[in-house]
Amino acid sequence: MALLAVLKAGATYVPMDPAHPEDRLAYTTEDAGLTTVLTDRAGFPGGGTARVLSLEELAEHAPERCDGPPPSETGADDPAYVIYTSGSTGRPKGVVVPHVNVLSLMAATIDDFGLNEDDTWTLFHSSAFDFSVWEIWGCLLTGGRLVVVPYWVSRSPEDFHRLLRKERVSVLSQTPSAFAHLVEVERDGAEAAPVRLVVFGGEGLDPRMLLPWFDRHPETRCRVVNMYGITETTVHVTAQTVTRAEALSGSKSVGHALPGWSVRVADPEGRTLPAGVAGEIYVGGAGVAAHYLNRPELTEQRFLADPRTGEREYRSGDMGRLLPDGRLEHLGRLDSQVKLRGFRIELDEIRSVLLDDPRVTAAAVVLNRTDPDDAATAQLDAYVVMDGDDTASVRQRASGFLPEYMVPSTVTALDRMPLTTNGKLDTRRLPAPAQPAPAAPAAVPRPESRQVHR
């Protein structure tokens, strides 16, 4: 309701997650130059000259009737929202997105996805995560019913699955990491959720994780769509309907650009590359954000002019390649490469090999150092959610597909992957790789882990 009120008043909303550290909340308030903060968080930290109002206080003083919102001169090109995303400097940066971008996103998807007033959506994600833009306005602008998921329900796959059934949710938006937990709930025998459309975003999808879902949700009854997107390009850029055949093949395609959007792949000098050649993804068209707030130099570096057409485009920092039919393959972040003993390694390649193992349902790979100051102590550590706990055979199988220097030093089995508040994999909460258990006495297992192989 607060977001609607802000927009009806002709203002711009800047969402903040109450769970974020006080320093981040104060920084965002000051950097955005906020004049008013609406919150239900007790003891909101000060920042700049903003007036802090509690939602409870506003409700107490609200008039009994209202004749409608005040006259507004807000135009389509005026900012609708500013969402802060992580920055390489250690401080988040605000992305300014106009009203017209959101309307263009809805216009590009409403017919293809069959969105209408009969749909029930969930608001699963924090409003400070841009996936919420799709959930909130995708629902309300198409006349649907929006179910706000309580935080504690979003953290429990079992409770969330019950909510999907109780509320008869038809449109579900998820990150792959969060959805993997729902798949496990249904594999354990829960009644199938009544969802007709699943939209993935926020992180890369390995479609092989969907095979158990397709067993209970035929493609004729539930459409699964993988969407690639970036905060700076208004949530979504491409769409790929995922079929059982694609899941079996492990396809990395994220589909064609949405109507009104454009995608090209370029070399480090910005020159467009031909189909089949990997490079950096550039996004143009209707979704490109206005700029970074108060960051003119960074805006100039990332928001550029397409040398072919002159239209504005965003340099994503993501790696991909175009297929001959114009679909885009997303190959991960350019900065997801690591260097180990002189070798450049793509962590997503190792993760993909681990997920090829039919026993593994989720995987993560990180580069760790046993001594932070000594590069010689660096090693690759893998984490898997799997049937059983034979991590030694998982590592042995991977060694048959990867060169020696890419084989993880450890493979640790987890009950489930830790997630951030946005539903993405939280690598900071991965446990330290357990040491191999000695013959005697038996080692006490670490929390969240069952077995490790080195």
From TrEMBL:
<dbReference type="InterPro" id="IPR020845">
    <property type="entry name" value="AMP-binding_CS"/>
</dbReference>
<dbReference type="InterPro" id="IPR025110">
    <property type="entry name" value="AMP-bd_C"/>
</dbReference>
<feature type="domain" description="AMP-binding enzyme C-terminal">
    <location>
        <begin position="349"/>
        <end position="424"/>
    </location>
</feature>
<dbReference type="GO" id="GO:0044550">
    <property type="term" value="P:secondary metabolite biosynthetic process"/>
</dbReference>
<feature type="region of interest" description="Disordered">
    <location>
        <begin position="421"/>
        <end position="454"/>
    </location>
</feature>
<dbReference type="InterPro" id="IPR020459">
    <property type="entry name" value="AMP-binding"/>
</dbReference>
<dbReference type="InterPro" id="IPR010071">
    <property type="entry name" value="AA_adenyl_dom"/>
</dbReference>
<dbReference type="InterPro" id="IPR042099">
    <property type="entry name" value="ANL_N_sf"/>
</dbReference>
<protein>
    <submittedName>
        <fullName>Dimodular nonribosomal peptide synthetase</fullName>
    </submittedName>
</protein>
<dbReference type="InterPro" id="IPR000873">
    <property type="entry name" value="AMP-dep_synth/lig_dom"/>
</dbReference>
<dbReference type="Pfam" id="PF13193">
    <property type="entry name" value="AMP-binding_C"/>
</dbReference>
<dbReference type="GO" id="GO:0043041">
    <property type="term" value="P:amino acid activation for nonribosomal peptide biosynthetic process"/>
</dbReference>
<dbReference type="GO" id="GO:0005829">
    <property type="term" value="C:cytosol"/>
</dbReference>
<dbReference type="InterPro" id="IPR045851">
    <property type="entry name" value="AMP-bd_C_sf"/>
</dbReference>
<feature type="domain" description="AMP-dependent synthetase/ligase">
    <location>
        <begin position="1"/>
        <end position="293"/>
    </location>
</feature>
<dbReference type="Pfam" id="PF00501">
    <property type="entry name" value="AMP-binding"/>
</dbReference>
<dbReference type="GO" id="GO:0031177">
    <property type="term" value="F:phosphopantetheine binding"/>
</dbReference>
